[in-house]
Amino acid sequence: MFSRQQSAGALVLHVGGEIDISNAERFDEAVTALIAAAEPDQRLVVTFTMESFCDSTALSVLIKHRHTVGGRMDIVAPEGSVVKKVLDVTNLSSQFDVYHDLESALAAYPTGTA
User: Fold this and answer.
1) How many domains does the chain have?
2) Global pTM value
3) Distance separating alpha carbons of residues 101 and 57, to the nearest angstrom
4) Cβ of 103: how many Cβ atoms within 10 Å?
5) Strand-pair partners of 75
6) What is the mean pLDDT of residues 106-112?
């Protein structure tokens, strides 16, 4: 459900499947571990797939941790995905930098910058 990788100066958390009240605690733990593994000021990217789903508990986790890291957390949510629609409807897409794919997110900041 969660996997982590280092990519082009960013630390990336890949999220698959549904994130809802039944597993939001595990999602919170995965994001907490991502932050703990990051270098100071390292960019963090949380990626969702077309098949991913999130509810308000997942959004709460993202908001909480975005504040923890001073806003240096980006989200990948493909156009047309449920996650992208939820971010748009809740207006959270204006609070995060949201990209349609990981390559776009990584290209937005040259390696080594935040």
Assistant:
1) 1
2) 0.92
3) 23
4) 12
5) 46, 98
6) 76
Q: What is the pLDDT of residues 21-70, one digit of tens each?
A: 999 999 999 999 999 999 988 999 999 999 899 999 999 999 999 999 98
Q: Can you give the pLDDT at residue 89?
A: 96
114 part of a folded domain: no
What ranges make up the beta strands (E) of the chain?
A: 2-7, 10-15, 18-19, 43-48, 53-54, 73-76, 98-99
Contact 53, 17 (CB under 8 A): yes
Residue 85 within a domain: yes
Nearest to 43, CA basis, from 102, 113, 94, 101: 113
Which one has a higher pLDDT value, 76 or 41? 76
CA distance 105 to 18: 22
Structural domain range at position 6: 2-107
Rounded to the nearest 5°, which phi and psi values hold at 87?
A: -60, -40
